């Protein structure tokens, strides 16, 4: 039976200790420290300070730390260090030495890239592969031949490898030395319980297991029981006030009360009057709403990209890459994670009805997709909740996409009367008391009623043109574009780099070009307060050096990079891009299987 040793939070959170601690003190290999320095990562975060030495000692660790606290390096750095040593003593293995399991393909790609980059910077002969369950068995077999030292994947894919005989259970038993369950609190809710159970009997007793999560839950407890063998488990931190642990302290949270109908007007005011800092990640609860916002903003010359579970995987990865590289400032992400389970159940009902009627089931969104949990959106300064999330937990994870590690961020939530219930829950979770400044959700003060009203006429006029039909058409259009992008990524990248032109994700979808007069807000519509507020936001941005270096630095990078298909890295458009005809030939492309 595992013994739980609880570490008092003050040992983890002490500021003095934080100042003193370095990666050297934690016993980290010089090569890893140099690699981190190249990434401008100079001192460990609290979770890294505590977890790294323990993992290096070989302890099983259950690490719980708030979103954006640096959990990935907390396990990757010691994992790699251990493999550096293991590779010198190398005995012939038939399966990976370390397996990292994550709930979504996006996370798997993210972790894989981080491992690969560290390996390259450290110049060590370690091999890492990333596998997904939609890969053909032959590709899985090729990728695992060798075998690689590290496998990053989802539990469903590992189960597939086992059942297809690509991974032998006995080889796992002989080879596996480290198993990481990242975003452990999500794995079971994504429906991976059976997949994990298929692996657990083959995990050798000596294997070191790590469970990383942002929240404590019954699911994490269940996983602990399933996976952990060693008798010594350190749970960090298990005591203290839950909200202090999960809410990032460096995010200024604010809210605006408005009707559901006025939300477009408010988002226009915030963005057009430059009252929030870029980059901005906008969350909606449905895909249609995302397209409605995109089309609406386009009319005012504000370009944005959308991200949702309906898009092909290659496109989703590429959109994230481009956004992270600073190629566009506004990303509208549909967060349907909280409704996923419900939708899957609904879908099952529809499917069974359909099969009874011998009808074809509708294409299904990718259930291994998630934009909220774990995805490391880089340099997001503002998270904007266009729709409120459905729970406190959803809120915490959304605002955790900004203020990552040592950076700061802001969130603005648009709250309509029918969202008041969840808003009140969030407020009471955060603690509505005067003493607690760090986690407060306060009214957004930079936007005055006057400023909003000055834009009302234009906003209402334009919003009428964004009809349901227009939304439906542009959603279909975007899907066609992205399927084509996705296929282009596969088929033509190596042959012709100019095809990168097609990969612009913030393309205008409106049939009519935006009217020039809507692009600028005339001076007579702006009051002095708004001008002042906008100036302050701009000054703050300039002070932070946040003037979208990604877009300017892009051309240089584009010339240098050689193989965009392999890296799927963000490569941007050239000026004067070719417009592509939208054909129907790609309609029949296969949908992503999970
Ligand atoms: N010691 C550090 N100093 C500065 N930045 C860091 C440090 N460690 C990690 N980061 C950066 O902080 C960001 C967040 O890290 P990471 O994704 O590991 O957080 P997380 O705790 O896993 O969050 P989530 O629970 O949302 O997945 C990343 O961009 C990472 O590169």
TrEMBL record:
CDD domains: DEADc_DDX56, SF2_C_DEAD
An MF annotation (GO) of this entry: ATP binding
Residue span of motif Q motif: 21-49
Enzyme class: hydrolase
DEAD-box RNA helicase Q domain: residues covered: 21-49
Region (Disordered): 1-21, 339-366, 541-594
Reactions catalysed: ATP + H2O = ADP + phosphate + H(+)
Keywords tagged on the record: ATP-binding, Helicase, Hydrolase, Nucleotide-binding, RNA-binding
Enzyme Commission number(s): 3.6.4.13
Similarity comment: Belongs to the DEAD box helicase family. DDX56/DBP9 subfamily.
UniProt xrefs under PANTHER family: ATP-DEPENDENT RNA HELICASE RHLE-RELATED, DEAD-BOX HELICASE 56
Name by which UniProt lists this protein: RNA helicase
Organism in which the protein naturally occurs: Rosa chinensis (China rose)
């Amino acid at each position: 039976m595992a013994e739980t040793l609880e570490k008092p939070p003050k040992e983890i959170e002490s500021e003095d200790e934080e100042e003193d601690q370095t990666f050297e003190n934690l016993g980290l290999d010089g090569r890893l420290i140099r690699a981190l320095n190249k990434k401008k990562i100079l001192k460990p975060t609290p979770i890294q300070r505590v977890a790294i030495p323990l993992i290096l000692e070989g302890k099983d660790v259950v690490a719980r730390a708030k979103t954006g606290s640096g959990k990935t390096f907390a396990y990757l750095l010691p994992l790699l260090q251990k493999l550096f040593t293991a590779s010198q003593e190398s005995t012939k293995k038939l399966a990976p030495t370390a397996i990292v399991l994550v709930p979504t393909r996006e996370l798997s790609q993210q972790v894989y890239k981080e491992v690969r980059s560290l390996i390259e910077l450290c110049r060590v002969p370690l091999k890492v592969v990333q596998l997904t369950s939609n890969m053909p068995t032959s590709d899985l077999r090729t990728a695992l031949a060798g075998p690689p030292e590290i496998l990053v994947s989802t539990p469903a894919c590992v189960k597939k490898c086992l059942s297809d005989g690509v991974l032998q259970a006995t080889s796992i038993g002989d080879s596996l030395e480290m198993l990481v369950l990242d975003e452990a609190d999500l794995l079971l809710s994504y429906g991976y319980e059976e997949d994990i159970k298929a692996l657990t009997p083959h995990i050798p007793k000596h294997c070191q297991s790590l469970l990383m999560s942002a929240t404590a839950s019954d699911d994490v407890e269940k996983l602990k029981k399933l996976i952990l063998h060693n008798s010594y488990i350190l749970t960090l931190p298990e005591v203290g006030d839950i909200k202090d642990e999960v809410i990032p302290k460096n995010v200024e949270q604010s809210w605006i009360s408005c009707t559901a109908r006025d939300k477009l007007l408010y988002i226009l005011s915030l963005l057009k009057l430059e009252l929030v800092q870029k980059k901005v990640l906008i969350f909606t609860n449905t895909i249609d709403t995302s397209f409605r916002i995109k089309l609406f903003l386009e009319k005012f010359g504000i370009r944005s990209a959308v991200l949702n579970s309906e898009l092909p995987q290659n496109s989703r990865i590429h959109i994230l890459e481009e956004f992270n590289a600073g190629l566009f400032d506004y990303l509208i992400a549909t967060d349907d994670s909280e409704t996923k389970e419900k939708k899957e159940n609904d879908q099952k009902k529809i499917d069974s009805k359909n099969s009874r009627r011998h009808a074809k089931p509708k294409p299904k969104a990718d259930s291994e997709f998630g934009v909220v949990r774990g995805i490391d959106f880089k340099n997001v300064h503002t998270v904007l909740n266009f729709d409120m999330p459905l729970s406190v937990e959803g809120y915490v994870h959304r605002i955790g996409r900004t203020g990552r590690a040592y950076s700061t961020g802001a969130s603005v939530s648009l709250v309509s009367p029918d969202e008041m219930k969840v808003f009140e829950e969030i407020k009471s979770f955060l603690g509505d008391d005067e003493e607690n400044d760090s986690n407060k959700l306060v009214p957004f003060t930079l936007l005055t009623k006057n400023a909003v009203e000055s834009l009302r006429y234009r906003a209402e006029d334009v919003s009428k043109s964004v009809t349901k039909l227009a939304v439906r058409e542009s959603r279909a259009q975007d899907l066609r574009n992205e399927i084509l992008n996705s296929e282009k990524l596969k088929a033509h990248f190596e042959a012709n780099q100019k095809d990168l032109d097609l990969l612009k994700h913030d393309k205008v979808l409106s049939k009519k070009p935006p009217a020039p007069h809507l692009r600028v807000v005339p001076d007579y519509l702006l009051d002095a307060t708004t001008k002042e507020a906008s100036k302050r936001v701009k000054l703050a941005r300039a002070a932070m050096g946040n003037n979208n270096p990604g877009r300017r630095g892009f051309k240089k990078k584009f010339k240098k990079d050689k193989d965009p298909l392999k890296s799927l890295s963000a490569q941007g458009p050239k000026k004067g891009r070719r417009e592509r005809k939208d054909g129907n030939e790609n309609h029949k492309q296969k949908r992503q299987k999970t």
